[in-house]
Design goal:
The chain is α+β, with helices and mostly antiparallel strands. The longest helix has 18 residues. Strand 7 and strand 8 form a beta hairpin. It is 40% helix and 16% strand. The strands form four sheets. The protein has a three-stranded antiparallel sheet with strand order 2-4-3. A two-stranded antiparallel sheet has the order 1-9. Bound molecules: iron/sulfur cluster (SF4) (2 copies). One iron/sulfur cluster binds next to loops. The site of one iron/sulfur cluster (SF4) has 8 residues, from loops.
Protein backbone atom coordinates (compact mmCIF):
# COMPACT_ATOMS: atom_id res chain seq x y z
CA UNK A 1 0.00 0.00 0.00
CA UNK A 2 1.25 3.46 -0.92
CA UNK A 3 1.17 6.54 1.23
CA UNK A 4 -2.54 7.41 1.57
CA UNK A 5 -1.67 11.12 1.51
CA UNK A 6 -0.61 10.61 -2.10
CA UNK A 7 -4.04 9.38 -3.16
CA UNK A 8 -5.95 11.88 -5.29
CA UNK A 9 -9.55 11.91 -4.11
CA UNK A 10 -11.04 11.75 -7.61
CA UNK A 11 -12.71 8.64 -8.96
CA UNK A 12 -11.43 7.77 -12.40
CA UNK A 13 -13.03 5.69 -15.08
CA UNK A 14 -11.42 3.52 -17.79
CA UNK A 15 -11.39 6.41 -20.29
CA UNK A 16 -9.56 8.88 -17.99
CA UNK A 17 -6.35 10.12 -19.68
CA UNK A 18 -2.95 10.67 -18.07
CA UNK A 19 0.75 10.81 -19.00
CA UNK A 20 3.29 8.51 -17.39
CA UNK A 21 6.39 6.50 -18.15
CA UNK A 22 8.46 4.24 -15.95
CA UNK A 23 11.79 3.03 -17.34
CA UNK A 24 15.24 1.93 -16.24
CA UNK A 25 16.78 5.31 -17.08
CA UNK A 26 14.50 7.32 -14.79
CA UNK A 27 16.15 8.84 -11.70
CA UNK A 28 13.63 7.32 -9.29
CA UNK A 29 13.92 3.78 -10.73
CA UNK A 30 12.96 1.28 -7.95
CA UNK A 31 12.17 4.09 -5.47
CA UNK A 32 8.66 2.64 -5.21
CA UNK A 33 9.96 -0.85 -4.27
CA UNK A 34 10.93 -0.20 -0.63
CA UNK A 35 9.14 0.30 2.64
CA UNK A 36 5.71 -0.55 1.27
CA UNK A 37 2.78 -2.72 2.28
CA UNK A 38 1.91 -5.06 -0.56
CA UNK A 39 -1.24 -7.00 0.15
CA UNK A 40 -1.27 -10.30 -1.72
CA UNK A 41 -4.24 -11.99 -3.30
CA UNK A 42 -4.72 -15.73 -3.98
CA UNK A 43 -3.72 -15.37 -7.64
CA UNK A 44 -0.65 -13.26 -6.77
CA UNK A 45 0.54 -16.16 -4.62
CA UNK A 46 0.02 -18.79 -7.32
CA UNK A 47 2.04 -16.75 -9.77
CA UNK A 48 4.83 -15.93 -7.33
CA UNK A 49 5.32 -19.39 -5.87
CA UNK A 50 5.32 -20.95 -9.35
CA UNK A 51 7.79 -18.34 -10.57
CA UNK A 52 10.07 -19.16 -7.64
CA UNK A 53 9.44 -22.92 -8.03
CA UNK A 54 8.38 -23.21 -4.41
CA UNK A 55 5.48 -24.88 -2.65
CA UNK A 56 2.89 -22.46 -1.28
CA UNK A 57 4.02 -23.36 2.26
CA UNK A 58 7.64 -22.49 1.47
CA UNK A 59 6.67 -19.28 -0.27
CA UNK A 60 4.33 -18.15 2.52
CA UNK A 61 6.89 -18.94 5.22
CA UNK A 62 9.76 -17.18 3.50
CA UNK A 63 8.17 -14.15 1.88
CA UNK A 64 4.95 -13.23 3.65
CA UNK A 65 3.34 -12.39 6.95
CA UNK A 66 -0.34 -12.32 7.82
CA UNK A 67 -2.33 -9.95 9.94
CA UNK A 68 -5.87 -10.26 11.22
CA UNK A 69 -7.85 -7.31 9.96
CA UNK A 70 -9.45 -5.66 12.98
CA UNK A 71 -12.64 -4.66 11.23
CA UNK A 72 -13.46 -7.83 9.30
CA UNK A 73 -11.46 -10.41 11.36
CA UNK A 74 -10.12 -11.83 8.05
CA UNK A 75 -6.47 -12.87 7.89
CA UNK A 76 -4.82 -10.78 5.18
CA UNK A 77 -1.45 -11.52 3.69
CA UNK A 78 1.45 -9.15 2.99
CA UNK A 79 4.83 -9.35 1.32
CA UNK A 80 7.62 -9.28 3.92
CA UNK A 81 10.13 -6.50 3.23
CA UNK A 82 13.85 -7.21 3.69
CA UNK A 83 15.66 -6.11 6.81
CA UNK A 84 18.01 -3.70 5.02
CA UNK A 85 18.04 0.01 5.81
CA UNK A 86 15.52 0.83 3.09
CA UNK A 87 13.27 -2.14 3.90
CA UNK A 88 13.41 -3.16 0.26
CA UNK A 89 11.09 -5.59 -1.43
CA UNK A 90 12.81 -9.00 -1.48
CA UNK A 91 12.52 -9.05 -5.29
CA UNK A 92 14.08 -5.72 -6.12
CA UNK A 93 17.63 -5.63 -7.43
CA UNK A 94 19.83 -2.59 -8.01
CA UNK A 95 20.14 -1.43 -10.72
CA UNK A 96 18.23 -4.18 -12.53
CA UNK A 97 14.77 -3.66 -11.00
CA UNK A 98 12.13 -6.27 -10.27
CA UNK A 99 13.52 -9.77 -10.70
CA UNK A 100 10.09 -11.38 -10.87
CA UNK A 101 8.66 -8.64 -13.11
CA UNK A 102 6.45 -10.81 -15.34
CA UNK A 103 4.84 -12.34 -12.22
CA UNK A 104 4.73 -9.23 -10.02
CA UNK A 105 1.65 -8.78 -7.82
CA UNK A 106 -1.45 -6.95 -9.04
CA UNK A 107 -0.85 -3.87 -6.89
CA UNK A 108 2.65 -3.42 -8.41
CA UNK A 109 1.10 -3.68 -11.86
CA UNK A 110 -1.50 -1.01 -11.15
CA UNK A 111 0.91 1.49 -9.59
CA UNK A 112 0.74 4.54 -9.90
CA UNK A 113 -2.96 3.87 -10.32
CA UNK A 114 -4.93 2.54 -7.40
CA UNK A 115 -8.01 0.38 -7.69
CA UNK A 116 -10.89 0.03 -5.25
CA UNK A 117 -14.37 -1.45 -5.15
CA UNK A 118 -17.44 0.28 -3.85
CA UNK A 119 -20.60 -1.39 -2.59
CA UNK A 120 -23.76 0.18 -4.01
CA UNK A 121 -27.45 -0.48 -3.55
CA UNK A 122 -29.13 -1.01 -6.94
CA UNK A 123 -32.85 -1.73 -6.69
CA UNK A 124 -32.99 -4.69 -4.26
CA UNK A 125 -29.44 -5.77 -4.86
CA UNK A 126 -26.03 -4.77 -3.59
CA UNK A 127 -23.65 -4.39 -6.53
CA UNK A 128 -19.88 -3.96 -6.49
CA UNK A 129 -18.48 -1.16 -8.61
CA UNK A 130 -14.77 -0.98 -9.40
CA UNK A 131 -13.09 2.37 -9.79
CA UNK A 132 -9.58 3.84 -10.03
CA UNK A 133 -7.60 6.75 -8.61
CA UNK A 134 -4.20 8.38 -9.11
CA UNK A 135 -1.42 7.85 -6.58
CA UNK A 136 1.04 10.74 -6.84
CA UNK A 137 3.94 10.06 -4.52
CA UNK A 138 6.65 12.70 -4.41
CA UNK A 139 9.42 10.28 -5.29
CA UNK A 140 7.66 9.05 -8.44
CA UNK A 141 8.88 11.06 -11.44
CA UNK A 142 7.00 9.00 -14.02
CA UNK A 143 4.15 11.55 -14.16
CA UNK A 144 6.63 14.10 -15.55
CA UNK A 145 7.17 11.93 -18.63
CA UNK A 146 5.20 12.16 -21.81
CA UNK A 147 3.69 8.77 -22.73
CA UNK A 148 -0.12 9.09 -23.02
CA UNK A 149 -2.43 6.49 -21.51
CA UNK A 150 -6.01 5.92 -20.56
CA UNK A 151 -6.72 3.85 -17.45
CA UNK A 152 -7.94 1.11 -19.81
CA UNK A 153 -4.77 1.11 -21.94
CA UNK A 154 -2.59 1.15 -18.78
CA UNK A 155 -4.47 -1.85 -17.38
CA UNK A 156 -4.06 -3.73 -20.67
CA UNK A 157 -0.34 -2.88 -20.86
CA UNK A 158 0.25 -4.06 -17.28
CA UNK A 159 -1.90 -7.20 -17.80
CA UNK A 160 -4.00 -6.55 -14.73
CA UNK A 161 -7.20 -7.69 -16.42
CA UNK A 162 -6.26 -11.31 -15.84
CA UNK A 163 -5.41 -10.64 -12.19
CA UNK A 164 -8.69 -8.79 -11.62
CA UNK A 165 -10.63 -11.57 -13.28
CA UNK A 166 -8.92 -14.18 -11.08
CA UNK A 167 -9.38 -12.25 -7.83
CA UNK A 168 -12.81 -10.72 -8.39
CA UNK A 169 -14.80 -13.50 -6.75
CA UNK A 170 -12.47 -13.62 -3.73
CA UNK A 171 -12.74 -9.85 -3.28
CA UNK A 172 -16.51 -10.02 -3.57
CA UNK A 173 -16.56 -12.64 -0.77
CA UNK A 174 -14.62 -10.23 1.46
CA UNK A 175 -17.05 -7.45 0.66
CA UNK A 176 -20.11 -9.62 1.20
CA UNK A 177 -18.77 -10.49 4.66
CA UNK A 178 -18.10 -6.86 5.41
CA UNK A 179 -21.67 -6.04 6.41
CA UNK A 180 -23.07 -4.78 9.71
CA UNK A 181 -24.03 -7.63 12.05
CA UNK A 182 -21.63 -10.24 10.58
CA UNK A 183 -20.03 -12.30 13.34
CA UNK A 184 -16.22 -12.13 13.55
CA UNK A 185 -14.45 -15.30 12.41
CA UNK A 186 -13.26 -17.65 15.16
CA UNK A 187 -9.61 -18.88 15.03
CA UNK A 188 -10.60 -22.14 13.32
CA UNK A 189 -12.42 -20.32 10.53
CA UNK A 190 -9.58 -17.86 10.22
CA UNK A 191 -7.20 -20.75 9.72
CA UNK A 192 -9.47 -22.33 7.06
CA UNK A 193 -9.86 -18.95 5.39
CA UNK A 194 -6.05 -18.69 5.26
CA UNK A 195 -5.64 -22.14 3.73
CA UNK A 196 -8.40 -21.76 1.14
CA UNK A 197 -7.18 -18.30 0.14
CA UNK A 198 -3.41 -18.57 0.22
CA UNK A 199 -2.01 -22.02 0.84
CA UNK A 200 -2.96 -24.04 -2.24
CA UNK A 201 -0.84 -27.07 -1.28
CA UNK A 202 -2.45 -27.36 2.15
CA UNK A 203 -5.87 -26.81 0.53
CA UNK A 204 -5.13 -29.60 -1.95
CA UNK A 205 -4.36 -31.97 0.94
CA UNK A 206 -7.53 -30.87 2.70
CA UNK A 207 -9.66 -31.68 -0.37
CA UNK A 208 -7.94 -34.86 -1.57
CA UNK A 209 -6.46 -36.42 1.55
CA UNK A 210 -9.21 -35.89 4.11
CA UNK A 211 -12.86 -37.05 4.15
CA UNK A 212 -13.83 -33.91 2.24
CA UNK A 213 -14.92 -35.71 -0.94
CA UNK A 214 -16.92 -38.25 1.11
CA UNK A 215 -18.82 -35.43 2.78
CA UNK A 216 -19.45 -32.98 -0.07
CA UNK A 217 -21.27 -33.77 -3.27
CA UNK A 218 -18.97 -32.50 -6.00
CA UNK A 219 -19.23 -33.30 -9.67
CA UNK A 220 -16.61 -35.88 -10.76
CA UNK A 221 -15.47 -33.74 -13.69
CA UNK A 222 -14.90 -30.82 -11.35
CA UNK A 223 -12.89 -33.03 -9.00
CA UNK A 224 -10.67 -34.16 -11.89
CA UNK A 225 -10.22 -30.58 -13.05
CA UNK A 226 -9.17 -29.49 -9.57
CA UNK A 227 -6.74 -32.38 -9.37
CA UNK A 228 -4.92 -31.24 -12.50
CA UNK A 229 -5.39 -27.52 -12.61
CA UNK A 230 -4.28 -25.22 -9.80
CA UNK A 231 -6.41 -22.31 -10.95
CA UNK A 232 -9.51 -24.55 -10.87
CA UNK A 233 -8.53 -25.62 -7.34
CA UNK A 234 -8.05 -21.98 -6.31
CA UNK A 235 -11.50 -21.11 -7.68
CA UNK A 236 -13.02 -24.07 -5.89
CA UNK A 237 -11.40 -22.65 -2.74
CA UNK A 238 -13.52 -19.51 -3.23
CA UNK A 239 -16.62 -21.69 -3.43
CA UNK A 240 -15.60 -23.42 -0.23
CA UNK A 241 -15.05 -20.02 1.42
CA UNK A 242 -18.60 -18.97 0.57
CA UNK A 243 -19.87 -22.12 2.27
CA UNK A 244 -17.53 -21.80 5.24
CA UNK A 245 -18.37 -18.15 5.83
CA UNK A 246 -22.09 -18.84 5.37
CA UNK A 247 -22.41 -16.43 2.49
CA UNK A 248 -24.00 -18.94 0.14
CA UNK A 249 -24.98 -22.64 0.13
CA UNK A 250 -22.30 -23.14 -2.49
CA UNK A 251 -21.61 -26.78 -1.55
CA UNK A 252 -23.98 -29.65 -0.92
CA UNK A 253 -23.41 -32.24 1.80
CA UNK A 254 -24.03 -35.83 0.57
CA UNK A 255 -27.22 -37.38 2.02
CA UNK A 256 -25.22 -40.38 3.33
CA UNK A 257 -22.90 -38.00 5.23
CA UNK A 258 -25.92 -36.33 6.83
CA UNK A 259 -27.35 -39.75 7.78
CA UNK A 260 -24.02 -40.90 9.26
CA UNK A 261 -23.91 -37.77 11.42
CA UNK A 262 -27.39 -38.44 12.90
S1 LIG B 1 7.41 -7.18 -6.55
FE1 LIG B 1 8.72 -6.16 -8.04
S2 LIG B 1 7.56 -4.35 -8.67
FE2 LIG B 1 6.65 -5.07 -6.76
S3 LIG B 1 7.67 -3.94 -5.14
FE3 LIG B 1 8.80 -5.84 -5.43
S4 LIG B 1 10.43 -5.36 -6.87
FE4 LIG B 1 8.93 -3.71 -7.00
S1 LIG C 1 8.80 5.68 -8.58
FE1 LIG C 1 7.38 5.80 -10.35
S2 LIG C 1 8.64 6.22 -12.15
FE2 LIG C 1 10.02 5.66 -10.48
S3 LIG C 1 10.35 3.48 -10.76
FE3 LIG C 1 8.59 3.64 -9.40
S4 LIG C 1 6.78 3.68 -10.73
FE4 LIG C 1 8.58 4.03 -12.01
Amino acid sequence: MFNMKAVEPTRLDPETKFKFRCHKGIKCFTACCSNINIMLTPYDILRLKNRLKMSSEEFLGKYTFSKIDEKSSHPYLYLKMSKDEKQSCPFVTFPGGCEIYTDRPASCRYYPIGQATLKKQKDDEIVHEEFYFFVREEHCLGYKEDTPWTIASWRADQEVNLYDEMNREWKSILMRRDLPGKEPLDPQKQSQFYIASYDIHAFRRFVFESRFLDVFDIDKKEVEKMRNDEVALMKFGFNYLKYLLMIEESLKVKPEAIKAKK
